[in-house]
Amino acid sequence: MLALYLRDVRLGIRAGGGALTGILFFLAVVATIPFGVGPDLNLLGRIGPAILWIGALLASLLGLDRLFQADREDGSLDLLMLAGDRHMPALTVFVKCLAHWTACVLPLVIATPLLGLFMNIEPIGIGAAAVTLLVGTPAITFIGAAGAAVTVALPRGGLMVSVLVLPLVIPVLIFGVSASYGAVADPDPFLPPFLILCALTLFLAVIGPVAAALALESGVD
Amino acid sequence: MRLIADRLGGKRGGETVFSDVSFALGQGDGLIVTGPNGAGKSTLLRTVAGLLPTGAGAIRFEAAGADFPTLASACHYLGHENGMKKALTVSENLAFWQEFLGSPHLPVIDALEMVGLDTIGHLPFGYLSTGQKRRIAIARLLVSYRPVWLLDEPTAGLDKHSEIQFIALMKAHLEDGGIIIAATHLPLGLDEVKELRLGLT
Lengths: 221, 201
Description:
The complex is a heterodimer of chains A (about 220) and B (about 200). Chain A is mostly helical. Helices cover about 80% and strands about 0% of the residues of chain A. Chain A contains nine helices and no strands. Chain A has helices at about 1-15, 20-35, 40-60, 65-75, 75-80, 90-120, 125-150, 160-185, 190-220. In chain A, α3 packs antiparallel against α6, α7 runs antiparallel to α8 (about 160-185) and α8 runs antiparallel to α9. Chain A is elongated and about 55 Å long. The relative contact order of chain A is 0.15. The model of chain A has no long low-confidence stretch (mean pLDDT about 90). In chain B, α4 (about 110-115) packs across α5. Chain B is an alpha/beta fold and about 200 residues long. Chain B is built from six helices and eight strands, in the order βββαβαβαααβαββ. Chain B is globular. The longest helix of chain B is centred in the last third of the chain and has 16 residues, at about 160-175. In chain B, β6, α6 and β7 (about 180-185) form a beta-alpha-beta unit. The interface of A and B includes residues 2, 6, 76 and 86 of A. Chain B: One of its GO terms (molecular function) is ATP hydrolysis activity. Chain B: InterPro entries: AAA+_ATPase, ABC_transporter-like_ATP-bd, ABC_transptr_haem_export_CcmA, P-loop_NTPase.
């Protein structure tokens, strides 16, 4: 399993892996918002955490369609599924998700503090946004895996994955953003939405890979 | 260890591709599946591997030991695709499969030597020619041990010399007490193997 994790991280980072595309897209989204909204620093600071979250959400959906498709095209997916007695398919999917998250989504989280400066968010708000993204984005990857597994056979499934997955990640977005605001705005609490966000990630870490493994198993042809 | 197909039928996309296929293979038995394009050779292999549901009949596998209790855990499947990543080097690819598949057999460098490519382990897989890629995929059969080999057009893209090399590998596997089912148009030059002719129905 460690071998699979290392292989996928390596593939993600090497040329054509898509780790860089995600981070560039994130940068592009966040950097254009101030031009559109205008130079109102207070307004930017207020909407900043939400923009960071939406940007990270969309950027992390970008590479998801390749999660299983690349393996399917070169025949590895058959072999991964065939080894199902040795490594439970759901566990294989889970490890692939973790590797995808490490290679493609973790860089987004690391870039968040820098992009937070663009949005004039105060330091504690930047910290809160980064922490909520750190615990919230794995949930997006886990749901995304289910979407990617369903559309694995479609030649241009990229947009399809996003459309399938977006409604399901709305709760993650809501609690992520409200926790980030909770750290800044005084009457709003930080801890309750943050804990719900953690719970969502843990919950989806189980449901997502199991659903994806089922979809992959019934989808082979 | 025995592998038995009992009046097996295979379906692809709801259409029956072949039906009433029966065979029984014991240790050291090989089966060559021949037939025209579309006769269901690949479907048969994928059905046996468990990648496709059986359309009719049944496949039984009597395990020899506790190491490989089910057919899926006991078989190597070599399909049309090689199952290797272009961005990784040949050695990295093989080392990954060895670790993931378990039951290590030959070290990566020895397996590469068996297919005559021990000097290119450091190259990215994507740089290789079609025949070389196929030989690396064959080396995957050697890095992890599996008693049953399911081979779909294993010699596609191989030159004459590599073909002979591969036939020797298959013979060695059969003498070891393994089972091979191979779908191919080419005469593999293996004696003492059964032949299954699939026709268009």
